Every structure is written in C-alpha cells, then in structure tokens.
Amino acid sequence: MAKPSAPRPSEVGSHLAELDEYRRSQWLQSDYSASVWTVADTHDANKTALINFNYRLADGRNLINADRLYATVKEYAWWLRDPRYSKIDDASTHATMVQSLMHLAHALSLRNIWSFAHLQPYDIEQLTEEIRYGADAVLRASERVEAYLESLRAANALEPKLFGGLPRYVIPTTGARTKIVHVDPIMAACGLPSNAKVLPRVAALIGREAKRNGLKKRDGAKLKPLRPLSNVTSQSMQRWLAPLEDLYIMRRQIAADGISFKPFPQGAARVAAVKGVGTERTPTPPPKLVLYLLEHSVRWICEHRSTEPTTRSEILLDAAACWVLIAAFSARRDEEIDDLRNGCLRGDDESGWWLQIYIEKTLQRKEWIPVPGLVARAIRKLEQISFSARQQTGTDDLFQWRSPLGNIFRLDVGRQLDEFAAAINVPQHQIPGKPPFDWHWHPHQFRRFFAILYFYRFEGATIEALSHHLRHFNLEMTRQYLTQDPEAAALWTDVEWGYMGHVARTIVAGERVVSGAAGERMKKTTRRLNDAFRRKLHVTSSERVGASLSTIMQRRGLVLRPKPWVTCTCPRTYVATSQAACRRSSPRQTDEVGPNFAAAGPSVCPSCPHAMIEGSRKPFIEEEIGYLEAVSETKPRDGTLFGELEQARLLELFEVKRTRYDHAQPLGDPASDKE
Length: 675
Known about the structure:
This protein is of the alpha+beta class. The protein has 24 helices and 13 strands. A 4-stranded antiparallel beta sheet has the order 10-13-12-11. Strands 5-6-7 form a 3-stranded antiparallel beta sheet. Strands 1-2 form a two-stranded antiparallel ribbon. β3 (168-170) and β4 (177-181) form a beta hairpin. α12 crosses α14. It comes from Sulfitobacter faviae.
C-alpha cells in the first residue's frame, strides 16, 4: 500500500511522476494521476471496471478542475481497497462506491461547497434525507431537467422553434440531423453528469417532451410512467452513507480533505436501517397538522352527528375518521387496515382494549396490540356501518356499506383523506416565502402518526378531546408493541431523530424556554457551538447550529421522552440510570436501564440531572397546584394524615414552580446567558 507521506493528488507538474510511483497496486492498471482508471478484482486481473473522474459538477466544471473535491474522491478511490478500511476486492463494487462519492461531490457543488472538510452536521442531515431516494434526489436531477424543459417551453411560446428547441442527435459520420432527441446537451445545459440521463424520471421527462415535439428517443424504448421517487433499500443506503463515514475514518490517512467530525453518531449501518424503509417519497406532514387531524377525527366520531348518514359521501367521511384513528394507533399499512374484520376487537373500558391486525411484510401473522378506547369506538362505528353489508354479502369485512337501494360499496378510505381533511377544515400549510397550500394526505404518511403524537403532543397543538380520551391510556405500552415490528421501529426512530433535531433547533433559535440540569447543559453547549462557528467564520443559523447540537445529543446517547411536566433525556445506560431521580428510592435491577416513570412526577423530576424543564409545561404544574389547593380546603381532610401529605406536596410544588419553571429562560435572554 501507499506510504502516508505521498504528495497530495491535487498537486501537478513535477510531482506527478512521484505521485504515480507512490500509488501503485496490482488492482490499479492505470497511473494514479490518470483521469480514467482501470481497476481489477484483487484475485482476478482480467475482471475490470472503469472509474472515470471526468465527471460534471453543478457549475458545469469537470471534477478534475475542482482540486479539493477531486483530491478527496481520488484518495478515497485509492484507500478503499485497503483492508483496514473495507473488504471490497472486486472492481465492480469499487467503481460503484466511487461513483456514489462523485454524486455526493456533485451534491456539495450544488450547495457551493468545494471541500468535504467544509461539511457540517446540517449538511449531512440534508444529504441523508436526499440519499433516501437515490441518485435522482441527490443530484436533484429530474427537478432540474423539469425546470429546463419548462424554460424551453416558455421560450418556444414566445418564439416558436423547430421541434420545440430540443437538441437533435447528429450522425457523426455524415453530419446529418435526425429526428432523435440528443440527451447529452440537455444534461450539459442542466449541469448534470452525463450518466444522469439513465435515471428513470429523467428519461421519462425527456421522452415525454420529445414525443410532444415530434422527436423520438435514441433507444426507441416505450415511454414509461412518471413515478414518484421511492425509498432505496437499507443495503443501497448503506452504500451511499459508507463513503461519508469512511472519509471521517480515513481523515488522518488520506492526502486530501476528509470529514473532521463523525457524520453518523449511531453509525452509518444504523442510519441506513432506519432511513432505508420502503415508501414512496411523500413528505411527512407537519406535526401540528397531524395533531389537528387526529383531534378532529376524535371529535367527528364522538361528537359529530346525531342522525345516521344515508349517502355514500357521508359514509366515506365517517369511515375516514375511523381509519385515521386506527392507522395512528396501529402504525399499519393501508391494505392491512382495509383488511380488518368483524371480531378484531377485544376488551372493555376497565381492563383495556386490544386490536387484532395482520402484520403483512415482516411478521406475516396477526398480532394483538393495545389501543385506546377511542379506537374501540372507531371499530364499533365501522361494525355499525358495515352491518347490513356483512349480512347481505356473508363476509366479515369492516370497510363495506350497503346503500338504502341495496347496493354494496367497498369503502376505499385511502383515496378520501383529502376530502375528509377539507371537511374538518385542516389549516393550510405555510412555508416561509411561499403561499399557503392544502396538504396532500397519503396513506403512507399515517404509519408515523403515533410517533408524531408521542413526541409532539406537548408542542402547542390544541388536542383537548384527544387528550381526554387518552388520559387513562398507556402510550408507552403501545410503543413497545408497535416497535416489535422492525419496519415500524425504523419509522419510529426516524421520527424520534427528527424530534431531537426539532428540539435542538428551537433551543438554538431561542423559541424553546428550557431550564433544569439537562436544559442548562444544552444551552451551554449551544453557546460553545456558536462561538466555534464564529471562530471558523462559518455561517451561523438555527438550522446549522441546531443540527450540530442534535449530533452532540445523539453522541451523548440522550433519549427524549416528553411528559406533561418535563422532557426526560435519560440515556439508556447503567450510569445514567443510577443517577436518575426516579430510581433513587428503589434498588436498581441489573437488567433495567432508563427512567422508572412509575416513580416519576412533578416533584421528583425537576431535581434530576436528566430533566429538561420547559416553560411551556408550567400550566400542568399550575393545574396540579390548583387541584391540591381545592382538595386541601375540604373539611373532611382537615387535620388528617392525608391532608398533611397534600399540604406538604402543595408546598413542594409551589417551590418547584418558583425555582424551576418561573426561572426558565430562552437562549439569548440576558438572564440565561449568565454562566
């Protein structure tokens, strides 16, 4: 292998011969300095692949002219065959991994970042979300091609051109123009690498535009539908994330820029397992819209109508409200919910309710999961809706209805979610700088709803009816059941990481008023991050600093568990568990880690080193104080042991409110900035 003192690959001139001498190996059948490599299998020199570094970046430049990016890509391509860093010994996989890093270099150039050393946690966070949907998303390829074709159409409308201004392929030997669209000039005009033309959405967009303007594609293939981008597999995602992790691991070995921080505190394999979940690229709805939809689904079922619906449109709205709640508390797929049968519900209000549902892709069996009483009401409502239809058809499907005229209709609720959202007046979504718009609800989004409810239910949304029906329901138990399914567990973790990022960004922006030991540590860390960003002359924003804070929180192993009075951050470690206030009064079991919520409460948690106290939770403490004040004034308790205990608890809560909640300050407040 190469000596670590080799010159930088970006150095030119007299150093090239020296560089080529340092970088020699049996698997590399070209000079190191060449712009195209032929690489071979370790154990078979006849099996080869090409690595072409002549690769177009977003500004139109060739990668070999962007010295720092080029040096890193080339050094990575060299050290990737070192057994200390990977087990790759075949040429094909080698070329694929380097191609992935070149695509990532292109993604950096889109952001005007010209060195991997300039990456920050925020950039890694954004890249990871794009990597979920493959090369098209990383390069923003179909998005850029679509914008280019739209500009061609606009120009052609003002000044019509032959074939809509699309470039035509010219036969090299004769110079004759054909009626075949020439794709390479389109790639160059969009600033895309030439191999982006094979991406399905890019090919479909160009093929459609060619046909619209009387041209054909060179390959003569039939036009394929323009499908949404789909989540890549966990294995594919691992191949994308590995180069970023490797650039951190190799940072002291490569003679080029590496990544100075660990890009994935949990490890690239763990991130790939969580993010590589097979769904279409449908955006996750904002938590406030999710909670609004859940709240008004509860109201629709429990408060909405005194008369029975008689039309199919009315029935579909009733079924949609039921479907939303079942989906939220089961985290199951659209088709699995649609397959619910009569008899799938057991239990009662006193001992609890259980729902039997089929787990299709992973467990491939029916499972009983705990659900709140409002889901039981939704099932009872569906049993009522489907009763006549079930009698007529002899089937036990719940999503069917018999009209007054005797016609049987299958209730496909997944197609009616937007109509239901309109019926309950879900607010429009507002993105800064853009006009508000109605959110498009998709069944795939609903698998995340229970996790969103769990983490975001104290984030300011109005959910009185939902909270009322959940007051005796154990969300922790449902979480344990739902996350037994690996795919549901991955979705849960994805939302959990997103919530941690949300908390970090709102702390940095000064929007979240925090105190307590954990809250003060986070504010102190944020001040240090801000100072570090300024010293390095980096752009400081709540998004960028917040992403760095979130990375540190993950590195420390913090686990956020929102409670009405506090957010617990206790890591799942024996040391953290031994320090938790809720564990002090009872001996710790050797196999138990994390908090003991049975012993937690408003008077216990504020003194805990893992407590993040938030000013927004003060109403809960005030409600507890009001209740104890009212109880303590009743004569039957006066002078009793119970009365004395309540008085002591009341004084304790007064002190907690005064010292913890009243004094909570946001970051940036002068009182908060005192060390």
